[in-house]
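Students often ask why inverse folding is considered easier than folding. One informal answer: many sequences map to the same fold, so there is more than one right answer. In these notes we will look at a single instance of the problem. The structure comes first.
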């Protein structure tokens, strides 16, 4: 009887050790994944009209690498902003993602993010050296497939350069943890461009 209890204790001790080892390994993988992401994902953050697009465009021109991904750009009609469109940076395919109604409220077509947006990111993963996301904010709130694909890209082995809004929501808060954020303020655009170029050339794994 004593021998049996001793053997049971040994089995329980082994199981506990195995569980501890597995937990430690899972924590290691999780932390290493976050460390890897921090080394390859760069975010450009700033308020409206602070020059985020300028920083992104000049950085891409300086880097001279093949990039894919997406950008959202405003649509104007007779100098009035009437909506936004999403563009695949590799194929130039585009679709209207949001429009203002007669009351001035922005109506978002979530399917465009979930279809064209997802396809643009998939194209970037397959065919580019750098994935650009311009920008991540609030339009994609209800586009769950798209947001899942964004996290997939951020946790991939592809380098990422993304523009994010300064005002945060839960989605942006989680994204910000997965990379290095460069904030545009006080006319520091040229300094930030140089820093980002240096990070992309030298700081990536």
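Output (designed amino acids):
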């Amino acid at each position: 009887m004593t021998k049996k209890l001793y053997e049971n204790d040994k089995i329980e001790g082994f199981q506990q050790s195995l569980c501890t080892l597995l937990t430690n390994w899972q924590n290691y993988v999780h932390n290493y994944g976050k460390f890897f992401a921090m080394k390859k994902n760069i975010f450009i953050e700033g308020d409206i009209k602070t020059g985020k697009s300028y920083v992104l465009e000049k950085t891409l021109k300086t880097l001279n690498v093949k990039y894919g991904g997406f950008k959202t750009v405003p649509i104007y009609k007779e100098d009035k902003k009437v909506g936004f469109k999403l563009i695949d940076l590799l194929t130039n395919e585009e679709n209207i993602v949001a429009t203002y109604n007669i009351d001035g409220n922005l109506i978002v077509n979530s399917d465009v993010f979930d279809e064209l947006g997802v396809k643009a990111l998939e194209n970037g993963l397959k065919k580019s050296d750098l994935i650009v996301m311009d920008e991540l904010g609030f339009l994609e709130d209800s586009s769950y497939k798209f947001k899942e694909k964004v996290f997939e890209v951020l946790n991939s082995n592809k380098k990422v350069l993304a523009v994010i809004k300064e005002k945060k929501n839960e989605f942006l808060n989680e994204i910000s943890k997965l990379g290095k954020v460069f904030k545009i303020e006080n006319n520091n655009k040229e300094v930030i461009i140089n820093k980002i170029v240096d990070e992309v050339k030298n700081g990536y794994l």
